[in-house]
Queue: 2 jobs
Job 1
Amino acid sequence: MSETLERIVERLAGEATGSEGVEAWAEQVTETTVRAFDGAVESLTSASSEGVGVRVVTGGRLGYAYTADTSEAGLRACLEEARANLDVSSEDAGNVLPAAAPIEPLDGLFDADQVDVGPERKVAFALDLDERTRSIDPRVTKVETAVYGDAVARVAIASSAGVRGAYSITQAYGYAVALGSDNGESQTGFGVDAARGLDGLDPKRIAHEAAERAARMLGAKKPPTRTVPVVFDQETAKSLIGVLVAGLSAEAVQKQRSLFAGKLGERVGAPGLQLIDDGRLLDGFGAAPFDGEGVPTQRRVLIDDGVLQGFMHNTASAAREGTTSTGNASRGSFKSTPGIAPHNLFFAPGGKDQAALIAQAGEGLLVQDVSGVHSGANPVTGDFSVGVSGLWFRNGELAEPVREATVAAHLLDILSGIVEVGSDLRFSAGSIGGTSLLIGEMTVAGT
Amino acid sequence: MLEDATVRKVLTAALATGGEWAEIFAEDRLTHNIRLEDRKVEELVTGRDRGAGVRVVRGTSSAYAYTNRLDEEGLLEAGRIASAALRDQPGAEVRDLTRREPGVIHAVKIDPATVERAVLAEYVRRADDAARSFDGSIAQVVAGYGDIHQKVCIVNSDGFRTDEDRIRTRFVVQVVAIRDGVVQTGFDGPGRARGFELFDEFPPELVAKNAAERAVAMLDSKPAPAGEMPVVVGQGHGGVLFHESSGHGMEADLIAKEASVYSGRQGQKIGVSNFNGVDDATVEGAWGSFQFDDEGTPAQRTVLFENGVCTDYLTDLIRSRQLGQNASGNGRRMSYADLPIPRMTNTYILPGTDDPDEIIAQTPKGLYAKSLGGGQVNPVTGEFVFGVVEGYLIENGRVGQPVRGANLVGDGPGVIAQIDAIGSDFGVKEGICGKEGQGVPVGNGAPTMRIARMTVGGTGGQL
């Protein structure tokens, strides 16, 4: 890279003429991924890449273009493309740039030691994770893949409206997919951990989670079709929360594709239920000092005591309603215009652990794996039907494993059916935190 | 894109520490994406991405480094980083490079780059108008068009080079229908490895009508039943089922790790005698087609099932060598930032001889899954699931009450064994398949077919 990201975005922002607004967002990422299999390195990937996205607004119209070519000519061409794209877009009150606001720095996103971790230690981590996972249970003799990954990234933003910001982050993660086999049958188990650096990862925990989950699923059968209490574990509860995200976007409400439309101030969940989005919580990877358009982040309670308190806004959705952004503008990368997404979204944890939830429910299903969420859960209609596997429990204790089942219910019924939120809040990657959840009853379909 | 002299230098540097073979994958891609929602053309985004990855391979281990920079210095640096993973004396040399010629051409009549921006805006507006005029219940329409022009250059130290221009276009319409407080959605999204002539086959009005029809039909739906029952899958949509239930399990990386229910099942009879399935990247202009895969292997047609017998697996270069099988041309990657892995291209169940209408007429009671959404599979257990986006009950051999919220679950070989009727019709659907975080375009195709017994997950109680 010939120039710093800050220089690049500032120069582009300075190109604005007349009433034109210009905003530039730049990223640089250096990543390493190591995959181990059967005691050997399957692959080692390391690389760095960068790119810039340019947003132009004039007279309520928007133009966008991006480029990975950060040469003088590449940047100039990108700005011209964005300007030309503006000509065919429709007028919308949302097409404005946010005004500059003071940004509170957020310490703890960047682990300086992580930058100095060499490839040898990363390779050793993956190999060790592979070996550990294989040495926990005699039926777990193979690991489909054991992975170490990390990223060091820097982002910078500048706009003709005076926004200026930049920050750096480090992330590291490890995961293993254990393979359990017995009598010709195989099952998989997943374990994961994430931190700001390699030293913050706990390989023992990943290995145990993966091996245990694979081993206990051996011998799983299809359960009979019944309506019973269901406990989602920490990981699978995240899928459930993930489906709610789309409907909590103010843009989705404005465009009639939110199941929460018209429900502001109304009861949408069980009494006591609290859903929080916290852009400044360092435990989650969604933490940042400012959002995808330079607006400061904050902590917000979206559902309080079961009542819907508010939606997530970026500058566009806020401008359409004459309100202000909640700092929820998201960038998938420099390739996309700012959308709307939570930073770190989670249910406020309760006082009971998973075992206590199971004891309380008596008989039902503990879900340890969900599949088909992207097709079986519809965030617009609220229909929710997913494939599940896990353990049946009765008399408050775990019993036989079950597979090839589905659970189904309407999302609003699930929310109001949450009897308990577990005490086990954990962020393991991504922007959603998981806790065990006890749902009063759901249809479990099997035979 | 790259000079032969430059790539020789880079590959030589990459092999300096004991790699058996090395490869450069370079690409330059230009994309246009336009999106309409809420009656407005929200955005038109032009994107330019480019970069190259250098891979060094020894046995089943690979080291990979990529860069945004396509100049000699940038590539050499990537080659050095990739080679740093190995610590031996050089063993392999870069052979003389022969340019591979494509065996199939995916002709493009209208280069999307030549289409005026205003025309793109007109097409999404036409779809919006058509969907809204289909029925008064249509409350929201999202229409999007995207094209990609990807220039790919692959050079392998084993002595070959490929250069390919890939152009793909797709048009997508999603609608929301609302009536009496009931909300339903409908979707259609045809795509081709062709140019702007996509619209000759799929005018905006047709795609909009398909999406609107689905949403409106589901407004009268009741919750789907739960439990095991016969399922008839509508024309084209059985391809998604085949993709999830079998295709993934037949990808050779999982086979080599013995992490698939299809490991060791080559030569075994699993399906009925007229069950035939293929993966075919040579279908002219199809969404999942190409001239060469992302490792430079020519596009091929691979038979997965012949007369019910499990035949070949889908391989990339590493897995074909490991398993001692032919390279089937299924090494694909999302971009220069990713390692290639075995992936499907266009996966089809071939037509049988049953009259599609008769298949339904001879089903006394069951579910007609006219349209399926995406799915997911765990290849180790074979367990898969996918959503029914347009479903109806079959009552006395007739399609009746529409039902919503159904999911289908099963296990791969198990569901293939349960297919007991295969129609004489055929249709394809396009999608983006995700694996290890990499999304690639795939086509799925099938005739109307029946699965004798399958678990349906709904909230409407037992059938």
Note: The longest helix of chain A spans residues 119-134.
Job 2
Amino acid sequence: MGGPVKAVARRPSLADDAELAIAAATGDAGAFAELYERYVDRVFARLTRLIGPGPDREDVLQHVFLELHRALPRFRGDSAVSTFLYRITVNVAYDHLRRRVRRTADHDPAALEALIDGDATPEDRARRREELRQIFALLERIKPKKRVAFVLVAVEGLSLGEAAELIGAHADAVKQRVLHARRELVALMGRAEKASERRLS
Amino acid sequence: MSDERLDQLAAELARTRPVLDDLTRARVAAQLEAARTAPAPAPPVPRRRIAIGSAVAAALAITAWLALPASGPRVAASATPPLTELPDGHLLATVRGTSARGGVAGAVLTLFGPGWAMRNDRRIVADAETLVVDRSAGDTPLELAVRAATIRVQSATFLVESAQMVRVTVMRGEVVLGCGGEVGRRIGANELASCDPAGSRSAQPLVIAAATAASVLGATVEPPAIATAGAAKHKARIELRNPYAEPRAIDARSPYEDAAARPAGRRPPRPIDASSPYEDGAAEPRAGLDEIADREREHTLGLADTPAFSAAATKLRALPARPAPAPTASPIFADGASSRLATKLRPLPFYEFLYDLPETARHNLAYYFAYDYKVPQDVTRYADPLVRSVHAWKTTWKHTELVSVDLDDRLFVFDTRPRAKAPVAMLAGEDRELFLTCDAITDSSALGASGSERLRAIAANGHMLNEGAKYLSLAVPVGEYQPSRHAMKRLRPLFAKLDKGDRSRVHARFTSVNRQPTGG
């Protein structure tokens, strides 16, 4: 057996995001790699909530960082790098949702299972998996604009101002989208409940 | 109500912790790096400029061609390295993130790792994430076997992807694709076809096959130059490691190393070794059953990138070919009386169809074996009762009922199972109370000595499950459970055993249940 693999020597993470962004914009591959490493998990988590746990997530994730790489020369430091990146994330996710044919099929149970943390009991996992399946199925049925606003505000807990900054819209518009999304989702749930009652009777 | 429910669902979504696994992280990083470093596409050129440009280029080309001396080279030397013809029995292997090319009977074979290919005259056995074959001409067809798929090609360019299932995309020409034992179908240019994943799944992980093939080849022939180049790339890759790597298991504890290094022995443990140590900050894999198969596959494929695999492969190449394992060394018949019973141990025949490898190599990688008995014996005769019982159980369990009807003062248990000791049992008083109490698992020690005694008697009828001091009533109460029409047909004859008064009450209970919708 080969010896243990030593921990990979990483670039010291002392540099702040802005310094890294400037270095990456000038072609420093290491700086870009560091940015990728710092944010990839958070971007992945946000993407999962925005577009669902489908197999297309990986492509979208790659697209986000590719867009970041293209956009970095335009980064002027007016906002934090994280905000800049999340704005790209939201835009890419929105474009993806708009282009994607709306799904009717359920998500893969294994993909849903992977979203649940490890210490849940089997019963709890089953219940949570069902709830996730339900919420993703509902979100598939509303328009991407409303979906993005709803996920950012109602799920991720961002303020209307923060969500508006990421979406690139006015806070009032975001509020309207969230309200509409909520109304539609509630109506969809009501319809689903009635249909299930009819089936049972 | 729906508002609350929506909030609950949103909260559930907010609670999710999507984790990007190591493999995906590295793959995205690599794809990103490739896309980042790719030359930017040329800006669109106005149509008129294209027309003028084409005309000028054509004129220049003709002038240059006319100006060249007749004997002089008219084509610039290609920058592509010369293609090595893959000799018979040699292995072309490549690791993740690299590619390897080889020539086989007029075809150019390009593997994108991890993968391997081995030539046997006009037949190639291969398994790789992606495989491109370009054959412009050939007098006889070339056959390519990838897992359960067989592709015959005369002249075509096609792509074979085998991440999940074997998928063939033909860019030029025509190929004949056969999946498993089925008759081949023709796939023309710009067409795509795939083989059923069930067929592909039966293949063993390619890492094992590659290691085994390497071990066999290492002893009989010189390691091919291409494989050596692949190994050198592999080493360089390990030293550089992926700059995006996150904390991970620091000791792969590859079970396959044992499988390859030892001539015989017990079946290696599962690839996922729970005792593998992790770096600080690394998240241990989650134990969800659904994930195990995927993780197992990824882990196995990921072994190609570990130093342990590299070391094992080097060691394997230096080993002499291993003899076929003696029957007594089989993982199935390693010890005990069975080793004295079996002889002529051989891998099950399907291995031959999956792996076009020498007999010794197949012996080494097989997990399942056929055998003969040393002393001829009639296995069918002595196994028959067991086979019949299993068959009976498998066919009858779904047509049997074990239900209870509680009439407040008495409880009736109806049992239509073939082995029912008491098809109809009436429980009253304390027995009824005990039966109802044990609707959930109950410890009899809390019920006193008489309670335990009574429970034992009820359990003896097969209406309760007993394990140590714990009891569980098995009959499903009518009310929660609604017997189907067919179930009622089986239950109705049992009602005849009841008193007239009870019969009508029990019957009413069933029919009232049948009339009422449940869950409303």
Note: The CA atoms of residues 53 and 111 of chain A lie 6 Å apart.
